[in-house]
Amino acid sequence: MSRHKYKRLKHQITWLPSRWYFCLSLAITILLGWVGVAAAQDSNTNNFTNLSTIWLLVSSFLVFFMNAGFAMLEAGLCRRRNATNVLAKNLIVFCISALAFWLVGFGLMFGDGITYSCVPGENTSLSLVGQKGLFFNLPFPQFGNLGFPESGFNCLNKDWSNHSFAALFLFQLVFAGTAATIVSGAVAERVKFWAFLLFSFFLVGFIYPLTGHWVWGHYGWLAKALKFQDFAGSTVVHSVGGMAGLVGAWLLKPRQGRFGYNLRTDRYEGLETEKFSSDNLGLATLGCLILWLGWFGFNGGSAKDLDYVANTITITMMAAAAGGISSVFFSPIILGKPSLASIINGILGGLVGITASAAFVDIRSAFIIGSISGIFVLLGEYFLQVWKIDDPVGSVPVHLFCGFWGTIALGIFSSNSSLLYSELDVYDDPLLQVLCQFLGWLIIIIVTALLSLVGWLLVSLILYYASQINERISGKQRHRKQFRETQYFQLGEFILTIFEISRRGIRVSLEEEISGSDGVFYNP
């Protein structure tokens, strides 16, 4: 082959990928245009429109991709030796969340009740929990009507008309998985893999759908009785996940050496004995950007009308930017010299703060909400240090503290000039709405805290006594601290003993914590 022909062939090969990209982009454009025409011509086919379903699916993909952001963020902010365990937890949590939400969670959260199914002339009493589609009975149409099933989810169909049932299930599933992923960061570097796995099932299968039904269920009692509102989950997703993580972090106690904590003696002994620095801030920054992108699907997908999507995403963008700037300005006052981790959490805090009201506020209000969210993140980090609660990633300040602020901010800043204000069932008096927002948030947080404590204790006791039985069978019993026995029953001693056993059940041993693995995975 001549040199001239070789150069020509090389030039053609170089431009081939670009031509393919152009053709692919053109094909997608034509397809979307055809879908829009088809939807306009036959919008009632199977009771859902194709364009709305496509956007809901795209939003689901974006929210699902947030799991990669959480994994990178946690792996970047934790120490290198824990990378395998951290990534494994973030990978498997969506697997267990999908199963839990399919088996029980979706039915409890969105299924019709026994006394109502949103048909005319029936009882419309307030609802505590859905009761349809539980335990392998979630009805997915296969060959006929691809919209909603004929019964069991009439209320959900009324709230999300013109949407595919399967697409809506996927969208709500990735929301539920996000709540479980939040917990991972708060208990990082010291929780047992199986403990986190079992608790995630309990959270997504029972706690999250129960409290979520009160707000997002058609007759949810908090939404109807208190007019409590939460557009995309500042309370339902983020505060619930943050509170579950806080309970877990409190029960586990700090990592060895953090705040001077000594796992051997179970006491705080002086200052920190080890450097707890982030391993890879570049990875954490990339995780933040992925989460930022995914949030456009998180909030944008929650808009039931496509006309409102662009405005919702723009509002979300502004709040995130304001949160990052605010964390830079106020960090010297609250925590000292600003750090990259604080900027990352400030951006994420702004996103959490705007999630409750992204469709109900204007862009100036979004800037204020995001700015104050950045301050709440810094205050949360400060108070956790004072309380000696170890949160390696900052999950609790970002999701619980900013989730609280975002919930309250809806009552303060919701504007009658916003796109969806006419659909917002709130009080005319902003002060009264703020009070109801606070009461609703407080109720959900208290219930979440109690159920999370029960969940962590049950999981820990199961794992503790399972390990005891396994050690007796194998003949490899470890030397364990003996609990003090008294002649008379003492409630205080009994409670302390339960918590001590529970901590051992869900926390890795000191040797495993130092090595960075709890023995489940090979740690290179």
Automatic annotation (TrEMBL):
InterPro entries: Ammonium/urea_transptr (IPR029020), Ammonium_transpt (IPR001905), Ammonium_transpt_CS (IPR018047), NH4_transpt_AmtB-like_dom (IPR024041)
Oxidoreductase keyword on record: no
Keyword annotations: Ammonia transport, Membrane, Transmembrane, Transmembrane helix, Transport
Pfam family, one: Ammonium_transp
Membrane association type: Multi-pass membrane protein
A GO MF label: ammonium channel activity
Cellular compartment(s): Cell membrane; Membrane
Any one biological process term the GO annotation gives: ammonium homeostasis
Domain (Ammonium transporter AmtB-like): residue spans on this chain: 54-464
A Gene Ontology cellular-component term: plasma membrane
Spans traversing the lipid bilayer: 20-40, 52-70, 91-110, 165-186, 193-211, 231-252, 281-298, 310-330, 342-360, 366-384, 396-418, 438-466
Entry coiled-coil feature ranges: none
Family per similarity comment: Belongs to the ammonia transporter channel (TC 1.A.11.2) family.
Protein name in the entry: Ammonium transporter
Organism: Moorena producens PAL-8-15-08-1
Source organism phylogeny: Bacteria, Bacillati, Cyanobacteriota, Cyanophyceae, Coleofasciculales
